[in-house]
């Protein structure tokens, strides 16, 4: 029912009993309460406020739960409706409410604003696209807007001004139909669809040959020409999905693409992370800033942080990063392959794991600013082979007693071949632990000292602490040289990519293995790209592995024993 103007306030009961002088705005075409010469002063206000998407939502869906996220998305969609924004990509975790806003409420609002223009909705299946269109039609009608009597179907509903909404599945029948606003919501049915190169190619072909060719500008009711707008809504499944393809098109050519689309990208993870971890955005595009501090939930009103943490544990890092954090990584890895990642070798029963040496490698950065790199830490140990005294005596040419000569060789790391001369021939480096954290200078000092104390209590005192002698490393070395034994400044050689390529063969050969506490490092290794990205733990890891390799493999020369190392204690 329409609202009663403050200047005319007849009792509500009287109005209802007298047959309804106050008519529904949907049927009160003259906006005069059904009485000639009695205009509804509130009707003009309602129409004017209806130009705002948020007010439309309040009228169409009074129980809609607003949040900081929805307010941000509503503002972007308002810009689309006003013709100020023509390219928008929205990547958010499941059940964040993005489809309700973008694919149901917004088409209804947009058509009410531009009833002579067409909105098109596409999804991975025609049934889902029809469901979005059905809801949009409902919101359009419930807010008092009329449908054309000759076409009010779900698939293609029209307004009296001959605009409206059309819907179909991706790769569906849009041929022969034009649109001014195109919305693609979830183009992939699931992981099998998104990871299939054939399905991805078919979708791209459909985008090129059908979807983009149907877009056309249109003239609004006020006479304003609106360029064709595109809105893409997606939960990320794969690092080569449609969103990745759209952004990759921006990067072609020396200037970021000969004809870039200039997408505005709203990419929000379920739990806020530093911008350096987020999906890379081409320079021709605009990233919508995340208002949160790292660690905060996207919509705590809908999904609290504790629930997200449980989901993260249940999904595992790969699917969590893709679906909820919107940064999928290649399942098989880029430089470091998933098949190369192996667990540590078992040791003989009752034999403790001994490391010679145990190294804590650090990649430090503590400049101000939330967009700067974080600090990376990796604890690496060179597994000392299990030597047999009789075998060692034979190697040195010593005479053995009869009882010692026939002794068994214990342990899986002892060479089985009779001619094996060097127990260090098959060196095994273990990644025992890895960590990534954004820290300032006092925080770095505090974290390092606390970590070393914790390792000491566990009987894992590092023989060496490696600090890269670049960026912020010298400052830490200066402050900690008297407090941390075995502190060594390492001069980096080559680029990050070259160091990664140097370590990759060792990982592939199974000479570097990973314990359960290095899962975060494994995640970075699989996503590591020579073109850049999140690599703080990878930097610490490669630095430590190359240092151990130089000391024990390359530095041994003709000697069969490892070089003696001197550490300050």
What topology emerges from the helices and strands here?
Layout: H1 12-17, H2 41-49, H3 53-60, H4 68-81, E1 87-91, H5 98-113, E2 118-123, H6 126-142, E3 156-158, E4 164-169, E5 181-185, H7 191-195, H8 197-211, E6 218-219, E7 225-226, E8 229-234, H9 242-250, E9 264-267, E10 286-287, H10 305-315, H11 317-324, E11 355-363, E12 375-383, H12 389-396, H13 402-405, E13 428-437, H14 441-457, E14 464-468, H15 473-480, E15 487-490, H16 496-508, E16 512-514, H17 519-527, H18 536-554
Parallel strand pairs: 1-8, 1-9, 2-4, 2-5, 5-8, 9-10, 11-14, 13-16, 14-15
Antiparallel strand pairs: 3-4, 6-7, 11-12, 12-13
Helix pairs in contact: 4-5, 5-6, 10-11, 16-18, 17-18
In short:
With 569 residues, the protein is an alpha/beta fold. It has helices spanning 12-17, 41-49, 53-60, 68-81, 98-113, 126-142, 191-195, 197-211, 242-250, 305-315, 317-324, 389-396, 402-405, 441-457, 473-480, 496-508, 519-527, 536-554; strands at 87-91, 118-123, 156-158, 164-169, 181-185, 218-219, 225-226, 229-234, 264-267, 286-287, 355-363, 375-383, 428-437, 464-468, 487-490, 512-514. 34% of the residues lie in helices and 14% in strands.
